[in-house]
Amino acid sequence: MSFKKLDYLTRRQMQKLHDLKSDRNARRVIQEMSRYLHHFYDGQKIYYLNKEGREQVNCEVIRSKITTANHYLMRNDLYINCGQPETWRNEIKMVSGEGKSQITAVADAHFIKDKKHHIIEIDNTQKMKKNVTKIDKYRRLIERNSFKGMPVIIWVTTTPHRQSVLKELCEGLDVLIYLNTDFN
Questions:
Q1: Taking the CB of the first residue and of the last residue of the chain, which one, N or C, has fewer CB atoms within 10 A?
Q2: pLDDT tens digit sequence for 54-89
Q3: CB-side exposure of 13: number of CA atoms within 13 Å?
Q4: How far apart are CA 4 and CA 86, in angstroms?
Q5: Cα-based angle 180, 128, 135 (whole degrees, multiple of 5)
Q6: CA pair distance 76, 137, nearest whole angstrom
Q7: How far is the C-alpha of 157 from the C-alpha of 159, rounded, in Å?
Q8: What share of the chain is helix, strand, coil (3-state, %, to 5)?
């Protein structure tokens, strides 16, 4: 079911998600699941459900080898680091208003904890201009009280420079900005 929810996983992530303890035990579990999984290499083995695996867990989303897998892996690391929230949902569309006044933003993930919205944004290879646009949309959604208060916006990015730029862009917002290396 973890693959149905998270799409792509590494051995390390599977270990953390399912408390598999040792590397040896994790490799054994993966071997037992091998008939349900495909994998590819992108600096490490990345696993995803094959046809038989999708049928086993009733998953309709077909995954394959992709060059953007690190985006998913960064999001998964944050999911694990946040304690695997039950309300976590990936690729959530947030809409406010209608017609020409409509504001739409798609978050990489979203969850609610202690009645507070948490918006997840993964900044892996995205142009900073797109981040600026997305932050502006969140500001406008907040102005419209779409979240019934100030949400926490959590970013994961790849460099200290990008981290500092995001911090500056998000001034006045409730924001947490991590580096992808913070979760290793």
A1: C
A2: 999 999 999 999 988 999 999 999 999 999 999 999
A3: 24
A4: 14
A5: 90
A6: 24
A7: 6
A8: 40, 25, 30
Q: How far apart are CA 90 and CA 61, in angstroms?
A: 13
Determine the Cα–Cα distance for residues 65 and 18; give it in Å rounded to an integer. 24
pLDDT digits (tens, 9 = 90+) for 8-18: 999 999 999 99
Both tokens of residue 62?
A: 């077909």
Distance CA 48, CA 63 (A): 7
- Would you tell me the crossing angle of helices 69-81 and 11-18 to the nearest 10 degrees? 20
Nearest of 4, 25, 168 to residue 76 by alpha carbon: 4
Integer Cα distance of 148 and 105 in angstroms? 16
- Residues for the chain: how many in total? 184
Structure-block tokens of residue 3: 């693959």
Beta carbons within 8 Å of 2's beta carbon, 6+ residues apart = 9, 14, 17, 18
d(C-alpha 8, C-alpha 44), whole Å: 12
Contact status, residue 121 vs residue 131, Cβ threshold 8 Å: yes
